[in-house]
Amino acid sequence: MTSLRIPVPSASLPSPPPPPSHHRLRLRLFSSCPRSRTPLLLAMASSSPPQLPELRQGIADFYDQSSGSWEQMWGDHMHHGFYDSDADDVSLSLSNHRSAQTRMIEESLRFASLLDPESKRPKRIVDVGCGIGGSSRYLARKFGAQCRGITLSPVQAQRANALATSQGLSNQVSFQVADALQQPFPDAEFDLVWSMESGEHMPDKPKFVKELARVAAPGATIIIVTWCHRDLSASEDSLNPWENELLQKICDAYFLPSWCSAGDYVHLLRSLSLQDIKVADWSPNVAPFWPAVLRSALTWKGLTSLLFSGFKTIKGALAVPLMIEGYKKGLIKFTIITCRKPEQAPDV
Ligand SMILES: C[S@@+](CC[C@H](N)C(=O)[O-])C[C@H]1O[C@@H](n2cnc3c(N)ncnc32)[C@H](O)[C@@H]1O
Question: Which of 37, 63, 123, 146 has CB atoms 3.0–4.6 Å from 153's, for a disulfide?
Fold first, then answer.
């Protein structure tokens, strides 16, 4: 396994140091989606509702419509697979790809040091943006933990609960419709806060990260696996026009608001005094995934299932080549970011 690590000093200072100059956060926190030009820093300061209602509804409808057809083809997980970076994607079978999705969970835990022999096993887990609950059920079994999952999609929450019941896990895991930006949980509730490919949907990244930190217990681990755009170079103030255009099309297809970079996330985590911040670009390790999604959509089963799952799902499928292009051109970065809430937590 190879993963590209961006060295990030751990942040344990009570007040955050200025971001590294190459992050240039303030200059760059503008929407990558041309439709919405709201600076993220304005969102940070604003008291407006945390989610634009139409975006929330769009996300809910998208997953309500597409989850059944995705599950039919791909099973439990609506996230990328993790592959050896030299994997030959064409020779991999669908079951190889499904195993790669499970491996994504394992590699994320390993990256966060939760598989170290001396590390404490999580017992109370929140799955933020849980899909049909694949990660929750996996983590509940692996750690004997209690898991709570939240999603915007009523269809997903219902299906996740049904699967938990049918798999004898209903006393360990449960799912509900709730907003990640206003989580229905008390402070300091969980010792693992898990967000697998939901961050890209969040219109207010500072609020998102703040909520993750709020529900984390002292000493808890936070794992964010998400799509980012590339970090800007020191001489850049924004992405190139063609990059913005490409992201705009992806935003339209998948109900995504502004994108940010890995460096932006690091800055946000540091501003909350979170510790042991680690970041890696796993783009080379997910490269076979989208070509496999495209191939699966072009099978008879894929095509018929798409036809019956509605316009939003078809639009999502048509955007798959754009994701492939975004990765190939180095614009999209599949990013893992992990950190720990200090034992003696300052208010976040
Ligand atoms: C790509 S799916 C990932 C699902 C799951 N984590 C997995 O790995 O299978 C994105 C998920 O994020 C959820 N989501 C997006 N925005 C959300 C929000 N504001 N609050 C809660 N869930 C959200 C969606 O409902 C969906 O379940």
Answer: 63
Nearest atom (ligand 1) to Cα of 194? 6
Angle, alpha carbons 153-226-281 (nearest 5°): 165
CATH number given to 16-340: 3.40.50.150
User: Can you give the pTM of this predicted structure?
Assistant: 0.85
Query: Ligand 1 centre and the CA of 141: distance in Å?
Result: 21
Task: Rank 72-76, 298-302, 308-312 by mean pLDDT and report only the highest.
Answer: 72-76
Choose which residue among 82, 152, 313 to substitute to test ligand 1 binding: the one with the highest number of ligand atoms within 8 A of its C-beta: 152
Nearest CA to ligand 1 atom 11: 129
151 lines ligand 1 (CB under 6 A): yes
Q: Over 261-326, what HEC string results?
A: EHHHHHHHHHHCCCEEEEEEECHHHHCCHHHHHHHHHCCHHHHHHHHCCCHHHHHHHHCHHHHHHH
